[in-house]
Every structure is written in C-alpha cells, then in structure tokens.
Amino acid sequence: MLTQPLIILDTHYQELNNDGGDVIQGLTKTPKSLPPKYFYDDRGSQLFEEICQLSEYYPTRTEAWILSQYANEIAQLTGSCELVELGSGSSTKTRLLLDAYQQNTDDCRYLPIDISGGILKSSVLQLQQQYPDFSIQGLLGTYEQALEHLRSNSLRSRLIFFLGSSIGNFTPQECDNFLGQIAHALKPGDYFLLGIDLQKPKEILEPAYNDSQGVTAAFNLNMLSHLNWRFQGNFNPNFFTHQAIYNQADAQIEMYLHCQENHLVSLDILNFKVSFQAGESILTEISRKFDLAIMQKQLAAQGLKTLQTWTDPRHWFGLILCQA
Ligand code: AVI
C-alpha cells in the first residue's frame, strides 16, 4: 500500500531562518564547539553512508552482523508491532529487521525518522517498492519532535529502535534526557531496541575515526560548508584540519576541527562574527563507548527493563532489547 512518503514535523529546520542559537552558543564558548546535528545535510548524510562502508569503521558492519543473526529472535520476542526508527539515514540495517518482521508478523508498519529530508525521502520511496506489504511513512524532524508526535498517536504496540550507537553522540546529560523521552513516548509493554558501541582499545577506535581515505575528514569539514549554506557564512574549510582522538578517561572519541590560520568568520543570517586563532580547535562530536551492564542499569533507571542482549564474538558492539 503506497502512502505519502513524508510527514514534515519541523518546517523551521527546512528553512534558512533556523534560529542557530546553538551555533552562536558553541562558537562563543572556550573551547569552541558545534552541535553534531549540523553534520547531516544531504552531503553529510551521503558521506556518513560512505563512512559506514570503510574497512576501519567497524560499528556498522558489526551491528549488521548481530542483526543478521538475531533479527528473527527480536521479532519473535516482541511479536507484531509498529516499528519506529530514530535517525534512520538510508535504513540499510533496518532491512534486516523489516525482513524478520515480515516473516514473523502480519500488519507491518514502519516509521523512519530523520532530520535529513533528501535521504529520508529516497529511502522511504525505495522501501515502499521493496516492502509492498508494509505501510511506510517517514517523519522529517528532530528526535524530540518525533517522540512528541508519536506520544499523541499511540494505539498499537510499538518498537522504537535506535541503532548505530548514535546515542554515543549525546553527552551523559543528553543521554539521560533522551532515555527519559523514550520512556515517556512508550506505553507499558512497548519495546525499545538500542545499539551501542562497546569500549575497546584506542588502537581500534582511533583509525575508525581517522580513516586512511579521508572520508571522515570530509564529513567533519562538510559541517562548515553546511553552516555556510544554512547561515550565509564564509567559513573556509581549507583553514581547518580534521582529527579524532580517544579520550580514555571519558571513554569517548572526540572529533575536532583544528584551525590553521588566524581569521574572522561571519554568519550573516545570524548576524554573528567570530574570530579564530591558529592552533585553536572546534569540538564537533563526541562518540561515547559504552559498557553493556552499565547501560542496562541506566535504562532500568528510566523504567526500561532489559529482556535480552546480543553481541558479536569480539564484544565490540551490543544490542539491548528492553520493555517499558
Ligand atoms: C552517527 N554516529 C553514531 C557516528 C559515530 O560513530 O559516532 C558518527 C560518526 N562520526 C564519525 N564517524 C562516524
């Protein structure tokens, strides 16, 4: 059954007059930082898809392996329910879950949520062709908007899933708030499936975020081009270089753009100017690496009880299925 491919939840985000307060706030702090959501314009989303194919970037492949082994078990544990994916991107790994639900249940409905309209629309159109028995509709907006929208539309049993360890891009405080919002969006008996990247040696982690082909560098630098487009800015990406380091104490990868030249940047739509000194850095992303048992405790603190966990033979990545 073909339905309208997208529901637009965030019309503001589409427009150039997005208020950009978070950009001003991040660039006036010392040290400077920028919110990772600005990675994901259409080019950034494409580059992220390329990162997922890199030999050094193990998370996507490892999580896909776990899903290939256990998606059927997940579908059998939850039974028939509406599938909601947060931050779906191109929905590649999702197909493993959709296949399993198609085999094990009837009345399938899939709602992918993303802030990048181009990639969301093309993946919904493709999935509608490939899964004609599914009702599929994309929700374009932020997680907060989507969870809010879902809360007011909750008749069926539901599985929300958040894969790829995207939760690792939240600070501990943001992570707690996010899990609280998830718990709030679920009815008793609904499910949450979470994919997390597990702690491992720096020798594996750092190459995954400093790949030899420079795709991660292009992804990081693209944030500046995105800000130029969105806020009529004049960032020169050639004045910056990419680096990712593993901060062992906080168990997180930190991605930086290091400034190479003293210069001034204007973001005209925000009526904002900021000076950069050679040698200073912008923190663009943290990617936290987790402990499976600690994450289960954090979920339990929000009323989300673990039903089952799965991992790969090297224990590099984990999936947790929990119930509200
Ligand atoms: C989306 N997120 C889980 C990725 C990560 O690994 O933290 C984003 C990424 N940044 C650089 N490479 C991948």
Automatic annotation (TrEMBL):
Coiled coil: none annotated. It comes from the Bacteria. Residues 22-323 form the Histidine-specific methyltransferase SAM-dependent domain. The lineage of its organism: Bacteria, Bacillati, Cyanobacteriota, Cyanophyceae, Nostocales. This is L-histidine N(Alpha)-methyltransferase. It is an enzyme of class 2 (transferase). Its EC number is 2.1.1.44. GO terms for molecular function: L-histidine N(alpha)-methyltransferase activity. The gene is egtD. GO terms for biological process: methylation. Pfam families: Methyltransf_33 (PF10017). SUPFAM superfamilies: S-adenosyl-L-methionine-dependent methyltransferases. The keyword Membrane does not apply. Keywords: Methyltransferase, Transferase. InterPro entries: EgtD (IPR035094), EgtD_Methyltrsf_superfamily (IPR051128), MeTrfase_dom (IPR019257), MeTrfase_EgtD-like (IPR017804), SAM-dependent_MTases_sf (IPR029063).
